[in-house]
Amino acid sequence: MDITFKTEQGRFNYRVCAVMLHNEKILAMRDERSPYYYLPGGRVSLHETAQEAVVREVREELGVSAEIARPLWLNQSFFTEDVSGENYHELCLYFLMDITKTDLLKRGNSFQGVEKRHQHLFEWIAFDRLKDEYLYPIFIKREIYHLPEHFELRIERE
After folding, report:
1. SS3 108
2. How many CB atoms sit inside 10 A of residue 49's CB?
């Protein structure tokens, strides 16, 4: 069971994101439901650690076993989702992933994947393009240039 619930005031979500980098590019994705890019990841399941969840989500979405290099951020985010209009209170843990033992770089600058019934489009987006891209969360566009050496707690209101 995913750790998410809906109330009259909006939805609470507990999720994880994988930050995968190569040559000043970040791997982002979108699907048929979302006009914007976002980072690979998903909801944490009940009784699952965030570390287990991010490795599982990368395996489900990309079909690879990537390793965690280090945790980067716990982002406390408050936003209205662009497509559904739903108000969110989200806790998301971001992990820098080591992709050296995967085939992700051999798949090209953009590639497709399927997870259950959803089509995913993955793209390596150059850091200098991020400011002009429709990508969430917004803080990634700024913080990608100076990743923290130690775990950071963040608050973002979009």
Report:
1. coil
2. 12
Q: What is the pLDDT along the chain (158 residues), one digit of tens a residue?
A: 999 999 999 999 999 999 999 999 999 999 888 899 999 999 999 999 999 999 999 999 999 999 999 999 999 999 999 999 999 999 999 999 999 999 999 999 999 988 878 889 999 999 999 999 999 999 999 999 999 999 999 999 98
Specify the pairing of strand 152-157 against strand 67-80.
parallel
SS3 151: coil
Q: Is 101 exposed, middle or buried (0-12, 13-18, 19+ CB in 10 A)?
A: exposed
Instruction: Determine the distance from the C-alpha atom of residue 102 to the mean position of all C-alpha atoms in its chain, rounded to a whole number.
Output: 18
pTM of the model: 0.95
